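Residues determine shape. Take a concrete instance:
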Amino acid sequence: MADLGMPTLIELPHLEDCAALCHELGLQFMELNMNLPQYQINKFDIKKYRELARKYNIYYTIHLDENLNISDFNPYVADAYRQTVLDTINTAKELSIPILNMHLSNGVYFTLPHKKVFLFEEYKDIYLTSIQNFRAECESAIDGRNITICIENSDGYSNFQTDALTVLLESPVFALTFDIGHNYGIGGMDEPVILSHKEHLRHFHFHDALGRANHLALGTGEIDLEKYYRIAYEHQCRIVLETKTADGLKQSVEWIKNFSGCTALPDTGITIPIW
């Protein structure tokens, strides 16, 4: 089976409480969310994180800050975000973290009388040069280690973002995260883009949705979960059960158990060393 994980939860602000729940639910990993103040790069206690991983027999992935804009036209802003990624790569090396999840920023747009103009589209050459430079920096920092930066879909891919994906996916250090709830909430618009690069799928954010309301417990919404579960298995992807509450996680784990128990699935386990 592919490895299953959970996000860090607002209701459990202490790392050990999340780790204990992860172990209790029989999950293999926990995704540390760097939007939260306690998971900023300067707050990582490597020794403590290692001890908790051993104690609860789990490992970590990281969800980078959603505000991350490595292509900002202000070089000081862009440099700060890039350095955050590079520092996180170094932390990933120390903690044997295999996946860094990130979003591509939309950047700023101008509202004209009849349309929005995204500046990354208007100045696409500058934007794509920044993406190429970022790719090279990440390749150098990762330096052959087992670390992959997975780009997550959020609210539809613009033209400049699909071009950026093409540039990034030319490198083996970049891959894709498929968030099925985000995709459902915008009418499936992300799916054709993702499946056109399906050989690069490595990570899933798995949650149910009703209309545009997502991050629901599995089995409580309208998504064809079995379809996406099979895609995840086919491509040997890790799956984050990305509900935002402990109760939602417990419901989601039960759905997984029931589905796995009554359906023949290939054994596509992912082996991760724990120190």
